[in-house]
Each structure stands twice: as C-alpha cells, then as structure tokens.
Write a structure and sequence with these properties.
Elements: H1 22-25, H2 30-55, H3 84-96, H4 98-126, H5 131-143, H6 158-167, H7 180-191, H8 197-231
Helix pairs in contact: 2-3, 2-8, 3-4, 4-6, 4-8
Length: about 240
C-alpha cells in the first residue's frame, strides 16, 4: 500500500521528512533581522551624520590624536560605528552578502586617505614660515582685551589647535568652546591660509569619501528594503503590545 504524501507507512501517521519550500524558509529570519536592526540601521544613521560633516568640509581630524591609528573624532571605520556584539553580526552579514565587502571596504579605504591628507595639511600649515609667530601674536592681542584663555590644550599647542580649526573649515564655534570668541575675531584671517597643494589634496579626499558615502547610503537603504521584503522582517524593532 502506497503511503500518502507527508505521512509514513506506520498506522500512527507520523510525518516524514519532506523537502522544504525554499521560499517559505526565507520568512521570519531572525538572522536577517539582526543584519537589518543591528548593522544596516546603525550604519544608515552614522553614515548620514558623516555626510553632514563631510559636506561642511569637516573631517573632524584632531591634532591630539595624531599619534593614534585613528585620528578622526566623529568619522570612523565601519566597525567603529557598531556595538561590540553587532560587529559579530557584521562579520556574518559580510560573509553572506558578497556585495557588502566592496561597499564597506571602499568606505574604510577612503577614510584612510582623508586621515592621511588631514595630517599632511596640518603639518604643512604649522610649519609655514611665520604661522606660529602670527598665532602667538594673535593670542597676545586677544588677551589684551579678554580675560578668558582660548588655548584649551595650553599655549605651546595653540598653533596646532588653530591649524586644526583651519583644516576642518570651522567658520564659527559654539559658545561652550574656550576659543569661540578668539575664533570669531581671528578665524577669518587664519582660514584665508587654507591654500596650497596639501589642502587641495585634503579637499579631494574629503570629496571622494563624501561621494562614496552617498552611494553607500543608497545601497544600505536598498539592501534593507530587499531583505525586509524577502525575509519578512520589520525595518526596525517593533513595540510589543502590552500583555
């Protein structure tokens, strides 16, 4: 007697092992949900903020981080935008999605170019003839009519601080910054020194990363939509109804 589909030959009618419908297996994947919620969403938010900074020409390079591997305060490698646990999810995501490696790797490569160009531009400016002397003169002039001290890292490093403001295209500073009033008075003069090949290379590197970020954002949004649609996962964690 031939068995009915889905049942074994025993009288108990125990289910046999049947081929799994590939389409059905894609739905409600917690693994894919973790990709979207822990990796893609975090990167969409972070890369969006990164675009805002880069659009202003601000690499957020810091002179006091110059001896570290990473010198940009608010612009980070991809893994640096994720929580420690999400970095494990990122590894799984990139292994399963071959197109991710290229997009995310391009970001980190171009970030390295921005960092190198920013450091070179800073070195170029502080080593220019007369720059340190002019910063010292401006500081003395400022202290002649103001009681506050704008050298947040000490007078010996104030020229480095000023050069950092210049390379990051800082037009104005919020009042909580110790050099906000100094920069309001002398910033335009020092920003006029933002010229030469080193700064041209920095601007080119910033522009390159910004352009790549726009493409990366679009890819992340498209990837999220496709994964959510295919695997039937929400685009963000959903509030659980009160029990």
């Amino acid at each position: 007697m031939q068995c009915k589909s889905g049942l074994d030959s025993s009288p108990r009618g125990v289910m046999t092992s049947q081929p799994i419908d590939p389409a059905a297996s894609l739905h409600h994947s917690r693994r894919v949900e973790s990709w979207v919620h822990e990796v893609i969403n975090a990167l969409i938010e972070s890369i969006g903020f990164e675009c805002t900074l880069l659009g202003r020409g601000n690499s957020t390079w810091r002179f006091y981080l110059a001896d570290r591997d990473h010198q940009l305060e608010h612009i980070r490698p991809i893994a640096g935008y994720l929580s420690p646990s999400a970095r494990h999810i990122l590894r799984d995501f990139t292994r399963e999605n071959g197109d991710a490696r290229g997009h995310l790797g391009t970001h980190d490569r171009l970030l390295g170019e921005v960092q190198r160009a920013a450091r070179a531009a800073h070195t170029d400016l502080v080593n220019r003839s007369g720059f340190r002397d002019r910063v010292a003169d401006a500081l003395r002039e400022y202290q002649g009519f103001e009681t506050d001290h704008p050298a947040g890292h000490g007078e010996a490093q104030f020229a480095d601080q000023v050069a950092e403001r210049v390379l990051n295209r800082i037009d104005s500073l919020p009042s909580q910054y110790v050099d906000s009033k100094f920069w309001r008075r002398f910033g335009p003069e020092f920003l006029a020194l933002r010229t030469g090949p080193a700064f041209a290379e920095l601007d080119e590197a910033v522009s390159g990363l910004l352009n790549a970020d726009h493409h990366l954002l679009q890819w992340l949004e498209d990837k999220s939509f496709d994964l959510c649609k295919t695997y039937d996962v929400p685009a963000a964690p959903m509030r659980q109804p009160n029990s």
